[in-house]
Each structure stands twice: as C-alpha cells, then as structure tokens.
Amino acid sequence: xxxxxxxxFDRNVIDFVTVAAEFCKLMEQAVATEKDQFIDTTLKxxxxxxxxxxxLPACESMGNELLEEHVTEEDYEYxxxxxxxxxxxxxxYLDVFMEDMKYSDTPIAKHISEDLAxxxxxxCNFIFVFRQGLxxxxxxxxxxxxxxFRLYWGQKLVNTLRALHELKFASDTxxxxxxxxxx
Length: 183
Description:
Layout: H1 3-8, H2 11-28, H3 35-54, H4 73-87, E1 92-95, E2 108-111, H5 112-132, H6 135-182
Helix pairs in contact: 2-3, 2-5, 3-6, 4-5, 5-6
C-alpha cells in the first residue's frame, strides 16, 4: 500500500471525515434551527471534531497537488450570517487567548459566527477534496487540514466551545444564584 493510501484510509481519518461532514451539515442547515437547539448540537459536535482531529495519523504534504478551494466568499458569508442571526446579541464573546491581548487594556471581542464560519471553510474544503477520491490530493488535503488545525482552527474551536458553554449554562447559574436568596 502506498504511503498516501495508508494515511488516508486509516480508521481515525475515516472517523474524522464522518464527524467533519456532520459539522458541515450542521453549519449549512443552521438557518432552520432554533437558538437552543443550535447551541446544544454544536456543543456536542465541536468536542468530537477536536478529538477526531487529535487522533489523526501524522501526515506530511507531498506537495504534488494544488488543492482546490470549494467554499466561496458567498458560502462563507451565508454560514456566518445565518449563525449570527440565530445567536443575535449572544454572538459576541471576549477572547483571552489572542496574542494582542497581552498588550491591550481593553478586551478583544470575537464572534462565534465568524469562528464557526472559519472552521467550516477549512473543514468543508477538506471534505470537498476528500470526496473526489484521488489519493494524492486526499493525502495533501489531510496534511493541510492537520496543519490548519494546529495553527488556526483548533484554537478557534476551543474558544468557541467555551463561549457556547457559557451561553448554554450562564442562565442556569444566574437562576440558581437567585434561588439562594429567595430560600
């Protein structure tokens, strides 16, 4: 079996592709989702995506293939806008892991919708290439996806997960605190 075939048909890669496709489907169908349902489902898919990305076998680009970008600016904006409409005022969160934060006196605001659209763009481009079924291209797409996970979207994913966790459970904490005072 060729080097590229061994990596791309690894069980962990197949699992990652499955979860990545579910993530893309969730983002693409978000427009038809209620806010609470969107938050709940996203909170379940994001940790799976992160774990599956961590379990991917080491893979280096063979540099032979030019990878096609599938997600257009319009696609990206469609995903970002729909998520922003779902989350409304709760789309914004404070990011404490930005390099610029070290030198800033003011908090740095980020948008869940933008982070999810960024992750979607990378994952959807990967899935698109993978579906074409060309071993060398699939191998290079896997290597690029792993690199982007390490350098880019992995941190966005965990930051977004933290923000969504806060949205889901913040009102519960407030309600519990208020109950203490009335008992």
